[in-house]
Specification:
340 residues, alpha/beta, 9-stranded mixed sheet, 5-stranded parallel sheet, 26% helix, 24% strand, elongated, binds flavin-adenine dinucleotide
Length: 340
Amino acid sequence: MDTILLLTPTEADGSLPRAALEALSAARSAGGEIVAGLFGARTGPAAAQLGAAGVTRVLAAEAEPLAQARYGTDAAACTALARAAGATVIVAPALSRVARVAAGVAQRLGGRIDTHVTQLSAEGGLSASRWYYRQRIEAKLQRAERPWILLVDPGAFPPVAAAGGGTPKVEPVAVELGAELQRSKVTGVRSPTSGEQTIRPDAKLLFVAGAGWTKKQADGQPHADRAGELILGFLRASGASLGTSKSLTDQAGEGQKVLEFMTHLNQVGQTGSTPRHPRGLATCCHGEEPHVVGWRFIRERRAVNLDAGCGWARGKADVLYVADAFAVMAKVNELLGGKK
Ligand SMILES: Cc1cc2nc3c(=O)[nH]c(=O)nc-3n(C[C@H](O)[C@H](O)[C@H](O)COP(=O)(O)OP(=O)(O)OC[C@H]3O[C@@H](n4cnc5c(N)ncnc54)[C@H](O)[C@@H]3O)c2cc1C
């Protein structure tokens, strides 16, 4: 039977990232003994969370240089934890910090790695599922080589809840973190957007704004400024994440009046992202296949469109409101404002 290591960094306050609790769900479906491996400047709160979730053995690489994400120190910590655990399978959340070092760690361990894992199964030997070709083909993989590192996509598994477990046995793991590994320093964070953050992977709702928001409306005029107010007003009041269509993203390149807070990072679809929010609401978006293919993992879908024959009406949305999105969102914002 495999020894499964749940490998994760801790947050600045020493707690577990949400994606690590999801990776723990994944590790449980792999059907072996689970050991947790933590690295960061503080690990105590994360160990307590793991204990409450029923994990009995925790290895901790706790050191000040691990406070910041850095290839040299993170790769050294991950390799040391994997060796200390004697892990044959390593399950880790696909956080950018982990994804950056995981392939190098596999190389150091003489193992193999697979990424974008969305399912694990112990039946007939361990197998991992992932999607290829923009989420169109699902493959089930098995490997004979060990250790096998599996990076689990955030949002694919439910997070494990605390189940009244006990205090785990915490074993410190020493890691050589010499000055040569600490030459890179994080001096600040620069976000790709100059405005406010609109991409919120943990939001319950994906709000998609399509190109219709910038098109001529019933009075023969476009109302992009009003569109911007309504969209940002809704995002602020609801905490939703903002997605968009390729047409709206591309307009910036064609010199048209655009919504300034939109970037290509918001684009959902075949040549964009495939977000995993439980619910989605599309507005002023036609619902064409290259866009909707990015909604594969959105479980409840609704759309607002003036056109009763738009793509959403053809089995792509659970509910289509045939209505003016300017009027609908003004009313929704008013109702949300009233709740506060
Ligand atoms: C190779 C390839 C890859 C592609 N990849 C992607 C991708 O990754 N993502 C993506 O999104 N697209 C992608 N596309 C483009 C895609 O096919 C569509 O062209 C695009 O999604 C259309 O964007 P839209 O629905 O916002 O705009 P439009 O097609 O212009 O639709 C605007 C909609 O707004 C509605 N509307 C206007 N005013 C209002 C109002 N007041 N109230 C309510 N509704 C209103 C209209 O009825 C219309 O349905 C790709 C295309 C190709 C060929």
